[in-house]
User: Fold this.
Amino acid sequence: MFEKILIANRGEIVVRIIATCREMGIKTVAVYSEADKAALHVLEADQAVCLGPSAPAESYLNMDKIMAAAKQTGAQAIHPGYGFLAENPLFAERCQEEGVVFIGPSAQAIRDLGDKTVARRTMINSGVPVIPGMMQAEADPDVLMKEAELIGYPVLIKAAAGGGGKGMRIVYSAGDLREATESASREAKSAFGNGAIYLEKYLHQPRHVEFQVLADTYGNVIHLLERECSIQRRHQKIIEETPSTALTPKLRKEMGKAAVAAAKASGYVNAGTVEFLVDHDSKFYFLEVNTRLQVEHPITEMITGIDLVRQQIEIAAGNPLKFSQADIVGRGHAIECRIYAEDPLSAFLPSSGKIAFVREPRGPGIRNDSGVYSGYTVPMEYDPILSKLITHAESRKECIDRMSRALKDYVVLGVLTPIPFLMDILSSEAFIKGETYTNFIDTHFADWRPAMKGVDLACIAYIVDNMANHRTKSNFTPTNGETYSPWQTLGNFRP
Amino acid sequence: MNYNLKIGGQTLPVEADLKDDGTLLAKIGEKSFATRYQIISENQIHMEVEGIGRNIYLADNGDGKLININGTTYLVQDADTLARNGTRKRSSKELPQEITPPMPSVVERIMVAEGDLVEKGQSVMVVSAMKMEATLQAPFKGKVLKINVAEGDKVMPGQILADIEREEEGESKPQEEITREKEKI
Assistant:
């Protein structure tokens, strides 16, 4: 087993990986940019190496600097987390060349699956159903225009190197195509360093259901059930749950089989996720394989009791899986809510700044994967995810109740978060009924406003706090034997 | 003591009276609340309002307090103090007719040059933060007098990125529109 692992990422995912490494007796190295000097992942790791300026290209995406950090600290393996270099085949290759183990699939598998068009061909060849669309990326707007006509509007523009909704656009008519492709390509280039895009048919009201797979170096491939990730804003998931309300045992079995087939077809090793869209007729289509640990992996861990990061490390160290498909049982229900620093009232615009105070919910069946603390400043340079709140309970109903309670108890002051928005989704009839489609938010919550039920209490609290501050300031008189000290007379002075 | 508290876009008159037994009587509009409280820390108050106990978490925020009630955070400000200090921020409806970013961001692209004539709604600049792009559009028809930033500059809300001389009077307001919003239609 490795003695030391470098984690080439930032924020909550690094903190989460460090936790497993500690349990396994593995030392950890964090890397960071100048904007992240006081980030939680830097504070938590055994060692931390500064990579350089805040721009990702000069820090978290800079392979030379990350490699140098691994060499300098003697790390034997690198965990890439999600995003940044996690799905970059050049980085996996570079690790191999330099004799550092990349905790993830082979460069070839990342390359084949990362290029969504190659992945589509692989899946078609192995009999996995796919969505109608282009077989390769295209830059020429005239060709794209023709392809769009062939597929039929509405079409979805996707980044060939993409993921996470970056570089994605829905286009309803030919008149908007050119501008949308340019803008999508630009966004893809800045997010992934590759502006290649392609088109596919846009499905109306599908569900997004993905399967977690694990594959070791001995050819054993199993799946760890599904995650339903249909609740999205800006094509980014914000609520995930497992099991999916849309899957019957029969459909689950079929999709699981397809997921395993997809992993096998691409020669996949380590943890990966096979994403599908499921339409109204319970037909499923291969979407893509995410060749990394997913943001929403904790809900799978909750219902299966399997630590996915531990499995990733064991597999990378060359150990065989200790369980087979028959051993995988999902118990109860799990939900994850992503807590971003963003304003749900203005198009989910990022809200950077200092977190004056944070208090995380506690209790049975509650997990919080967090990368922040009171006094932490959320930088504007990176994805604004603060934490992921996960609940686990016996049934879906109890899990929703538990999540609603946990959200209510989650206090983040100083930056805006979607917590009130999430609470309202969790208590909405459509969500409770399990009617979760990818257009859920646009359908049910497009004009959402907070209920403002706490106005009276907030006013009372304001006055209580005001009076308390005034009293401690004005009422201080030294009693017998005491002398004035600035520490006492300053009262509630805060610099 | 009387307060005028600004919260969630409204200003509420509140009468507060601290009794000798430590009970705070607060009258908000027509409603009265008897409150007993304990200050637990700089960020926590335990309040018993009309007999129901609860923990309230709060933090100072420059010219107000951020107060969390059941998962929702409210910004509460003393309207009288705000008026005295003259720090009252313009509400979004009174936004200046200026090219300014909606969030702290980086200038990605500048689509106009000094001296250009722009139409109302024409894209002037693209800024980005946290990998998201926002397009800033001309609030009215006019002439670009000066570009105050360069591509790659870090900019803050309120900072004027370009000066545009208005050509005609109109009702228009500056629009910042998130490019992703468009596809939502």
User: Anything to note?
Assistant: Chain A touches chain B through 62 residues (CB under 8 Å).
